[in-house]
Amino acid sequence: MGEAVQTPSGSGLNFDFSSANFAQLRDLVFEHTGISLSDEKKQLAYSRFSKRLRALGLSRFEDYIQLLGESDSDELQDFISAITTNFTSFFRESHHFDFLAQEVAHLGKTNKRIRIWSAGCSSGEEPYSMAVTLLDRVPECRNWDIKILASDLDRKMVETASKGVYSLERLNGVDERIKKTWFMKGRGANQGMVKVKPELSSLIEFRQLNLLHSWPMKGPFDIIFCRNVIIYFDKSVQAQLFKQFARVLKPGGKMVIGHSENLAGVTNDFKLIGRTIYERV
């Protein structure tokens, strides 16, 4: 069975977690998300999935793994949510939004129909930041045909994103004028919360999507943001994904990835034109 570990928890309840348990969960993670968990992630896997055992009232990882193997298991979505990392913020890596404004303004000179994709939108801060950027910095685009597709593997994140409601703290660091112009403050029971204005929501379509499965949309897109997503995939999965991204991007379309990611050795379909900004060749 291999080495077993026990890890302290806030509830005082520990679970045996063997190397075989980890191997089975790692295979399930890869099958359903494409994320590759290295051996160094064993402690992380324990931490994330032991919470699911407690929530379900299970005492063994073997029982949890068996539950995940049942074809009609409702747990699978919670399993995916447990392992995916959903850290994000408004206007994260601000130079990408500077580029977005410039590129959309340039595209609009010859084409008023623009399609953008936020792939891996998490809880929605990225696509709403896109919408703010477009309406605030390229105001003429309000009369154009612009749509943002926002997708994520985690259905719960998509549901959260589509509501457009956040704690006021999530806007820390955002310019006061932007806050006042594009967000509505909650009152009464909703004090301390903000909601994006309808003008932003109207630009965005939210959709649950596993990037490793078939893509119902065919494009073509003008710009795709896929930031801090591929870092969790191995090179073979990355190569597969970017072949598909190239298919749905227009020739000359732009691909934006995360600051710790690069496409070297992954694809020949893109050339680097800026800080983690690529152009489809």
Automatic annotation (TrEMBL):
The keyword Transferase applies. It is an enzyme of class 2 (transferase). GO terms for biological process: methylation. It catalyses: L-glutamyl-[protein] + S-adenosyl-L-methionine = [protein]-L-glutamate 5-O-methyl ester + S-adenosyl-L-homocysteine. S-adenosyl-L-methionine binds at N86, T88, R92, E126, D152, N210, L211, R227, N228. Signal peptide: none annotated. GO terms for molecular function: protein-glutamate O-methyltransferase activity. SMART domains: MeTrc. It comes from the Bacteria. InterPro entries: Bact_Chemotaxis_MeTrfase, Chemotaxis_MeTrfase_CheR, CheR_C, CheR_MeTrfase, CheR_N, CheR_N_sf, SAM-dependent_MTases_sf. Residues 18-281 form the CheR-type methyltransferase domain. CDD domains: AdoMet_MTases (cd02440). Its EC number is 2.1.1.80. Keywords: Methyltransferase, S-adenosyl-L-methionine, Transferase. The keyword Methyltransferase applies. Methylation of the membrane-bound methyl-accepting chemotaxis proteins (MCP) to form gamma-glutamyl methyl ester residues in MCP. This is Chemotaxis protein methyltransferase.
